[in-house]
Design a protein that fits this description.
Layout lengths: L5 H49 L7 H10 L3 E6 L2 E6 L7 E6 L5 H12 L6 E6 L8 E7 L1 H53 L15 H55 L5 H23 L14 E4 H15 L6 E6 L5 E4 L1 H22 L3 E12 L2 E10 L6 H5 L17 H11 L3 E8 L2 E9 L3
Length: 465
C-alpha cells in the first residue's frame, strides 16, 4: 500500500513536523497581533486626545464621539504632570471585565492573555494601559470592546493556518520528490537487480553494477555486488561438480552395461577345453565383476545435462541392426527371445548416431531383461515409419516386447532419475538419460502401453521429409 511506502511516511512526518513548528510559531504570532492591535488603539486614542487638547476644548459633542469611534475606544484617560485627566469619554455599555498594563509586560503574559482572548465566545469591556507615543505624558489609558479584537485574532489565526498548510504541502511535495529521486529510485533499482539475479543467478550479466552517488546506497550496492559475484562463482563451481558427478554416473551406467555383456561372454569362455583359457577365465570374470561393482557405486552422483547432439543424416536400419546384434549376444542361453524389425529401407533420421544408439540400446536391453526374468519365450519388436507430431514431420520408432509389463510404481516416475528403475535392481537412470537425449533432439520419448500383454515405448524425432 502507498501509505506503507517510505516516501509516504516521510511525507506525513514532514507535515507533522511543520504543523508542530507552526504551533510554536502560532502562539507568539497571535500574541504579537493582539499587542499590536492594542498599541494601535492606544496610539489612535492619543492622537484623538491631542486633537482635543490642541483645540482648547472647542471640539465637543458629535465630533468628540467621532474621534472615539475612529480610535475604537469608549474613553481616553491621559496622565500628564502627575495629573490623571479624562480627555474623551462616551457611555460604556457594561462593566469593565479586566485591566491590562502593556508597560513592561513579559512575553509569557502576552501569550497567555492572547490565548485567553481567543477562547472566549463573546466580546467584553477591558481597560488597557500603555506608554504615550513620543513621551506625550506619563501614561495613557483606554477602555474598549474586545469583539473586534477577537474577530481579528481568529482571522489572523486562519491566515496563519492556511499559510502553514501551503508551506507544509509544498515542503512535503518537494521532500517526497527528493526522496523518490535520491532514495526510493536507487532502492528500487537494487530490488529489481536482486529479483533479476534471483531468476538466473548463474548469469553474470545480472550482477548489479554500483552506480549510486549516495554513499550509503553505494555501499549497499557494492556489498550486494560482492555477494552476487561470490554466489555466482560458487554456483558455477557447484554446477561443474554436479556435471562432473552426473557425467561419471552416465559413463558408469553405460560402461556397466557393456561390462555386463563382456561378463556373460567371459562366463561362456569357462566352457572352453583350452587349459590356458580355463585358468584365465575365472580371473577375467572376477575383474569384470569388480569393474561392474565400481560402475554401480558411481551411479549415486548428481545428474548433469548431456552435450548438445551432433546432428547428421543417418540410415535408421543400420543403426537398429547394430543394436539388435549387440543384444542378441547378451541373451542368456536359457532364454528364447525373438527380435523382429520392420523399417523402410530408405528411412533416414536427422540425429546424433551415438546418442540415438544409446537410447535404442537402453529400451531394447530393458525389454530383453524383462523377458529373461519371466523365463518364458518372448518377442521384441522394433518398428519405424514417418509420422507427424503436432503438425511437424518426423520419424516414429516403436520398441515393444511381450513381457509382463511395468509395475505401477515404476510407471509413476518412469523418466525421473534415481526414482526406481523399470526392472528389479535398476537405479532408474537409463530411461531418464534416454528421455533427455531424445529431448535434446527436439523429440519425445513416451510410454505407449504397459500391461499383461507387454510394454511399448515410442520415440518421435523431428525430420524433414
Amino acid at each position: 500500500m502507498i501509505s506503507n511506502s517510505l516516501s509516504a511516511r516521510f511525507l506525513w512526518l514532514v507535515v507533522i513536523f511543520v504543523m508542530l513548528a507552526e504551533v510554536l510559531i502560532f502562539v507568539p504570532s497571535v500574541s504579537r497581533y493582539r499587542e499590536e492591535y492594542l498599541l494601535a488603539r492606544l496610539e489612535r486614542a492619543q492622537i484623538a486626545s491631542l486633537a482635543l487638547l490642541a483645540s482648547d476644548g472647542s471640539i465637543a459633542g458629535e465630533l468628540a464621539g467621532e474621534l472615539l469611534e475612529n480610535a475604537g475606544v469608549y474613553n481616553v484617560v491621559l496622565r500628564r504632570d502627575a495629573v490623571r485627566e479624562l480627555i474623551l469619554s462616551s457611555p460604556i455599555p457594561g462593566q469593565i471585565d479586566a485591566t491590562y498594563d502593556l508597560r513592561g509586560a513579559n512575553a509569557f503574559a502576552l501569550m497567555r492573555d492572547a490565548l485567553d482572548e481567543m477562547r472566549r465566545n463573546e466580546g467584553r469591556i477591558i481597560r488597557v494601559i500603555g506608554d504615550p507615543v513620543r513621551q506625550a505624558g506619563l501614561l495613557i489609558e483606554i477602555t474598549l470592546d474586545t469583539e473586534n479584537l477577537q474577530a481579528g485574532l481568529w482571522e489572523y489565526g486562519k491566515r496563519i493556518l492556511l499559510l502553514t498548510l501551503l508551506i507544509s504541502g509544498i515542503t512535503a511535495l518537494l521532500l517526497y520528490l527528493s526522496i523518490q529521486a535520491f532514495v526510493v529510485a536507487p532502492m528500487r533499482r537494487v530490488i529489481r537487480s536482486m529479483s533479476a539475479y534471483a531468476e538466473a543467478p548463474q548469469d553474470a550479466n545480472r550482477i548489479i553494477v554500483p552506480r549510486s552517488t549516495i554513499r550509503e546506497i553505494r555501499e549497499a550496492e557494492e556489498a550486494l555486488n560482492q555477494m552476487q559475484t561470490d554466489l555466482t562463482g560458487l554456483l558455477r563451481q557447484k554446477n561443474r561438480l554436479v556435471q562432473l558427478g552426473g557425467s561419471v554416473a552416465r559413463i558408469s551406467h553405460d560402461l556397466r552395461n557393456m561390462l555386463t555383456t563382456a561378463s556373460m561372454l567371459a562366463d561362456r569362455m569357462e566352457l572352453s577345453k583350452d587349459p590356458s583359457v580355463q585358468r584365465a577365465a575365472p580371473k577375467l570374470v572376477g575383474s569384470l565383476s569388480r569393474a561392474i561393482n565400481l560402475c554401480e557405486s558411481t551411479l549415486a552422483f548428481g545428474k548433469a545435462e548431456e552435450a548438445p547432439p551432433k546432428l547428421a543424416r543417418l540410415p535408421l536400419g543400420a543403426l537398429v541392426e547394430d543394436v539388435v546384434e549387440n543384444e542378441k549376444l547378451a541373451v542368456a542361453d536359457s532364454a528364447e527371445i525373438t527380435f523382429l524389425t520392420d523399417l523402410p529401407a530408405d528411412l533416414h533420421v536427422h540425429a546424433d548416431g551415438e546418442q540415438l544408439f544409446r537410447v535404442l540400446s537402453n529400451l531394447v536391453r530393458n525389454a530383453r531383461q524383462a523377458l529373461e526374468a519371466t523365463k518364458q519365450p518372448g518377442v521384441i519388436e522394433i518398428l519405424a515409419k514417418r509420422a507427424q507430431q503436432d503438425g511437424k514431420p518426423g520419424v516414429a520408432i516403436r520398441v515393444g516386447d511381450s513381457g509382463p509389463g511395468l509395475p505401477p510404481k515404476a510407471r509413476e516416475h518412469l523418466f525421473e532419475a534415481f526414482q526406481g528403475g523399470a526392472r528389479k535392481g535398476g537405479v532408474g537412470l537409463g530411461l531418464a538419460i534416454a528421455a533427455e537425449l531424445v529431448r535434446g533432439h527436439g523429440g519425445v520419448l513416451e510410454l505407449i502401453r504397459s500391461d499383461a500383454e507387454g510394454t511399448e515405448f515410442r520415440i518421435w524425432l523431428p525430420c524433414e521429409v
